[in-house]
Amino acid sequence: MSENDADAALQTLVGLLKQRGETVATAESLTGGMVGAALTDVPGVSAVYRGGVVVYATDLKATLAGVPADLLAAAGPVHPDTAAALARGVRERLGATYGLATTGVAGPDPQGGIQAGTVFVAAAGPASVRVQQLSLTGDRTAVRRATVDAVLRLAAELVAEEPG
In this record, what's one Pfam family (predicted)? Predict the structure, then answer.
């Protein structure tokens, strides 16, 4: 996704949420707060952004974001079901209409047998949850930036398709 596409997705997301009076919250692992930072770069976003949690450590995914401990034990932190649970959990815990989540391996080395560049992003709303798997290339910075772009695009698509 080009920088212009990412910016367009971000503007679409924030615009739709404002128009509908809805909100969003974030649960981030490998992005370490970059999604929240991208959102808070938008003037007036305080009307829609509830906040976020950075859950880099696996145990915090359970305690702060509400991912079931048995899911983490069975599937691990980098898994589509974990991403979905992060998005649902942050939505519920922060009282937002939508929850966004990122989890994966930014690299440069594999983690727990999972290759660098393996990422899952998720968006959860009142009607559905969407998860997207990414196989990204490049250094840590490139993987993390592409992850932010992907979760914002996924969120914009979900919000546009769900009834307001």
Answer: CinA
